[in-house]
Amino acid sequence: MKRKYPLSKVYSLLEPGPVVLVSSAREGRNNVMAMSWHTMMDFEPPLVGCVIGGQSLTSGMIKASKECAINIPTLELAKKTVACGNVSGRTVDKFSRFGLTPEKASLVGAPLIKECYASLECRLRDASLAGKYDLLIFEVVRAWVDAAVKAPKTLHHRGGEVFMAAGRTLRIRSKMA
Predict the structure, then answer these.
(1) C-alpha–C-alpha distance, residues 36 and 28, integer Å
(2) CA gap 76, 59 in Å, rounded
(3) pLDDT of the chain along its 177 residues, tens only?
């Protein structure tokens, strides 16, 4: 039987995808933040909507540079990923502190993260909803994936300190359509 569920926890029912590491750069300084509130918005060109707090260092760096990289870590980076979300880049060099390796991107100034199995080079496409909803829309201009990683286990945020790992990959064909 279903029961009432707190509205403040609805987000945990609609988890949008893997926790990612958003890297940014400005004036010779790199930063990285963990983010779990994102969604694909279009296929071609690929557009990704990301909720990034307007007061954060990352938001300021992205609005100034108009670009970032969305890096997708696997479960092996879970502790480092969560740690990146628990400290501010204003006071800590997260790349150095958490042993992440910045790599030069090909089309944007933000670094890719070597340890992540995939990286998306992104340009800011639309910031018109940033003031009201902290929503930034990015166009992915180049994508990279480690071909050696066949079935990546990604980290998914369920709220607070609760996470889950991606499960089995399923292929489901329906003849009902």
Answers:
(1) 26
(2) 27
(3) 999 998 988 888 887 789 999 999 999 999 999 999 999 999 999 999 999 999 999 999 999 999 999 999 999 999 999 999 999 999 999 999 999 999 999 999 999 999 999 999 999 999 999 999 999 999 999 999 999 998 899 999 988 899 999 977 778 888 765
DSSP 96: H
- Retrieve residue 11's tokens: 């987000």
Burial 19-56 (b: 16+ CB within 10 A, else e): bbbbbbbbeeebbbbbbbbbeebeeeeebbbbbbebeb
Q: Which domains does the chain have, with CATH numbers?
A: 7-165 (2.30.110.10)
Q: Tokens in use for 139?
A: 């166009």
**pTM passes above 0.90:** yes
Length of the chain measured in residues: 177
